[in-house]
Amino acid sequence: MAMVEADDRDDEGSIPSTHSIRSRRSIRSFSMPDFGDHVDDQIFSQILEMDDDETTREFSEPLVTNFFEQAEETFVKMDQALTDKNLEELSSLGHFLKGSSSTLGFSKIKDSCQIIQQAGHMLNVDGSPEPDEKVCVKKITEALKAAKVDTTELKQKMERFFAGKPIGDN
Amino acid sequence: MQATHVSEVTEGSEGSTVPAPGPDMNLIFEFSPLPLLVLSPSCFITRASARFLADWRVSSEACVGQHLVPFLEKHLHPASVEDANKVHGTIDDAIAARAERTTKAINVRLVASWTARVIPIFKEDEVLAIVTEWHEGPPQLLEGDLVKPGLSTHEAFRILVEAVKDYAIFLLDVGGHIATWNMGAELLKGYKRDEIVGRHFSIFYGKDDLEMKKPDIELEICLREGRVEDEGWRYKKDGTRFWANVVITAVYKDGIHVGFGKVTRDLTERKASETRLVAAYEESEKLKSDFLANMSHEIRTPMHGMLSACALLLDTPLTERQRDIANIMDESGQVLLQVINDILDYSKLASGTFSITSDIVGVSSIITSVVRGVQTTLQPSVHFELFLSSDLPKSVQGDPLRFRQIVQNIIGNAAKFTDKGSIRVRASLQNEEEDSYTVLTEVTDTGIGIPETAAASLFTPFTQFDITTTKRYKGTGLGLSIAKSLVELMGGRIGYRPNPERHGSVFWFTARFKKIKSLNQIQDWKKLPKGGSLHSRLGTDKSDWADLQTKLGEIAPAKNILLVEDNIINQKVMLGMLRSLGFKHIDLASNGAEAVNMVRGKPAAYELVLMDISMPILDGHEAAAKIREAGIRVPIVAMTAYALKGDRERCFEHGMDDYIPKPVDKKWLIKTLSKWLIRQKRDYRRRSLDDQMGELRLIRQKRDYRRRSLDDQMGELRLTAEQKVAASTSTVEVNGPCQ
């Protein structure tokens, strides 16, 4: 759900603000770093707004850390399911990780998970059937690989962000 | 005794067979105080006494020699000729019986009557003469069944008038002062006879009537016309008023005006029931409109389901024949949807629940976009000409959606009814005021045109001017009437005239828009998320959000919520959001089975359940269904990442009440939680069909009773999941959340 268009990205005013005074203060002083197309800023900013204190980030930091743990666990399960050619299990795992990645606004990971979920059901992303199992396995393999790469990349950015460092750009 | 005396007289007059010892019998007859008429056996008048001549104001010459019956007819003008003939019958009776008889009264001009004693005089068996003695009496109007023997008609009338209770019947003198008073008048007006007789009748009138001199005017008209009738408020002795029907009749005696008869009836009850009827009618009209609006919603939801399914079907590999059939389904569905939308709009407009929003309107771009859209549907032989006047304001403030709807309707109509030639669309600035613009849009076509006779009813709902065209041109006949209402809501006018150049029509309308005052205003709008965003989808503006969140924050600490979510990350985020909204009592379940156990274990514990759909062990659909099977009516809100519209319907099928698309947006969450947790002012649009049907049945009953029973129904309905498809949600689903 890409609410904010690219050119509005660094304009916090574009996010309709109904938050408490605390949140509003944080919006004023806080500028969302550029995570590129890894992150849906509007969704992720809602997560960050739930922090009582934006220097310690007691809510969002462990949450994000948990997500990466979850993602890595899930990737392990996915690798196993892929070895077993258990498409059903892959679809279910894809759906699972899609849920949390979309909740945090981690768009690229979510998109890969979507592919895994659909291919696990022998479907293309648009919902049309893909009868060839080999094609599906190939798609899953590629998507899983991409998801891992994206996760690693994003993890680094997030770690830098929570450490208060510039996240750099790549 | 008298008879004997008279017979003696008669004998004397007959030819002095017996010598008269006293005064001349002729003189005795002549000066007798009795009004006597002597008849021959064949009923010709032979002699009349002086008293008779005086009473009847006739001369002896006018009587003697006349047959009795024509004589009576001539001089009495009896009410009927039969009366005169009856006298003849009585005479025959008397002769046959050889005894005295009295005739029935002969009514004369309704003011008097005459009766005659008939005394036949015999010599041996031969009738010598018949003596009749005439007396005047009151008219015998109630003669016969209505009057008991011994009761004079006069008295019967008096009793009748006095005893009538339902009507105030009384007489006024020529000046309008009350002269008589009956029981009905006493009961109705509260005055006793003693206190009211002699007073002027204007005492019964209210201040307004007195100021306009109504009592005097009434008497004046009454004198001129003979009677006058009026309905209005009249006042009783205690100051209370009643709705009266008053008839005043001028009363004459012997051609002289002696006063007025006044009859007053109390119509307060009738008046009240008329008012009730009108109120009931208005209310039922309103209910009908609401019912329509609601029904359209209920139809629209599955309609959208069908159309999306159809669109999906068309995207799959199909044979040519299958594709044709699916296309027909799709097209018919679109037409049907348009019809339903029209009806919905119309009923909303009719019930006054339609509102115009305020947003930025690009007049030129809307017209251009509609023209571009319609162009694709045109016959190749029709071409568009678009003139946008250079003085048109770039952007104004108003309702862009509704403006587009009007433009679409009028241009769409032109395209529909034009087979060849051109459609010219011209928009210009008609008027500019300090804070507003009036924009004129004219659409000229060379189509079939409109017959003069139909022009007047063009904007009347459900009118299609030519029945023969309805088969060819689909539609409800509501389009123009909706356009008219919308135009009026936008402070404009709409009209039609024939195309002056050639066959066809010109439709024009004006709409008033506010000026945009500052650049900031535009920027504010631009900052708002654009079309298809949450804001416009949920139809709530900034201040409403803050307001809603504050309200939610007030009640949140007291509410218990069950959050069902298997993914720990999502759990945490939802918990964070709910806590930030002020919720303190949040229970967690990590799959459907756990949720069902928790809800079943404490059926009354939760005010709301937030339910993830895809979960291990038992998914959200099944969990919701099991909760409903257990008879628990807690609101269940699905959280679903599914993008397909049908998934939403599946949530409702399984007994859920609402849904939030994933990832959960805070505003959407606020909106949904508020809807289910804050007791809202009940709104007609939010109610189900059943509820309205119930109300329609109850409308005749007392208002308070109806309210109470409705409240009861509402309480139940609030929890009835399947029927709770609120107007606002339906709007949301049109656009559909897409991930």
CATH-assigned homologous superfamily of the largest domain in chain B:
Response regulator
What's the alpha carbon Rg of chain A, rounded to whole Å? 18 Å
Mean pLDDT of chain B: 76
- What is the oligomeric state here? heterodimer
- CATH architecture designation of the domain at 61-160 in chain A: Up-down Bundle
**CATH fold-level name of the domain at 61-160 in chain A:** Four Helix Bundle (Hemerythrin (Met), subunit A)
Note the beta-strand portion of chain B: 15-25%
Reading off the top of the CATH hierarchy, the class of the largest domain in chain B is best stated as Alpha Beta
- Uncertain runs of chain B with pLDDT below 50, 5 residues or more? 1-16, 142-148, 467-472, 525-540, 680-739
CATH level-4 homologous superfamily of the domain at 61-160 in chain A: HPT domain
Bin the helical content of chain B.
Answer: 40-55%
| Strand elements of chain A, count | 0
Total helical segments of chain A: 6
Number of helices of chain B: 29
Question: Strand count, sense and closure of the main sheet of chain B?
Answer: 6 strands, antiparallel
Structural class of chain B: alpha+beta
Secondary-structure map:
The complex is a heterodimer of chains A (170) and B (739).
Chain A: H1 21-29, H2 41-49, H3 60-83, H4 87-104, H5 107-120, H6 133-162
Helix pairs in contact in A: 3-4, 3-6, 4-5, 5-6
Chain B: H1 2-15, H2 25-31, E1 36-39, E2 45-48, H3 50-56, H4 60-63, H5 68-76, H6 81-97, E3 101-102, E4 106-108, E5 112-123, E6 126-137, H7 153-163, E7 167-173, H8 183-189, H9 193-196, H10 207-211, H11 214-225, E8 227-235, E9 241-253, E10 256-266, H12 268-314, H13 320-351, E11 359-361, H14 363-375, E12 382-388, E13 396-398, H15 400-416, E14 421-432, E15 436-445, H16 452-455, H17 467-472, H18 479-489, E16 494-498, E17 505-514, H19 519-527, H20 534-538, H21 542-555, E18 560-564, H22 568-580, E19 585-589, H23 592-601, E20 608-612, H24 620-629, E21 636-640, H25 645-653, E22 658-661, H26 666-677, H27 689-698, H28 703-718, H29 727-735
Parallel strand pairs in B: 12-14, 18-19, 18-20, 20-21, 21-22
Antiparallel strand pairs in B: 1-2, 1-6, 3-5, 4-5, 5-6, 7-10, 8-9, 9-10, 11-13, 14-15, 15-17, 16-17
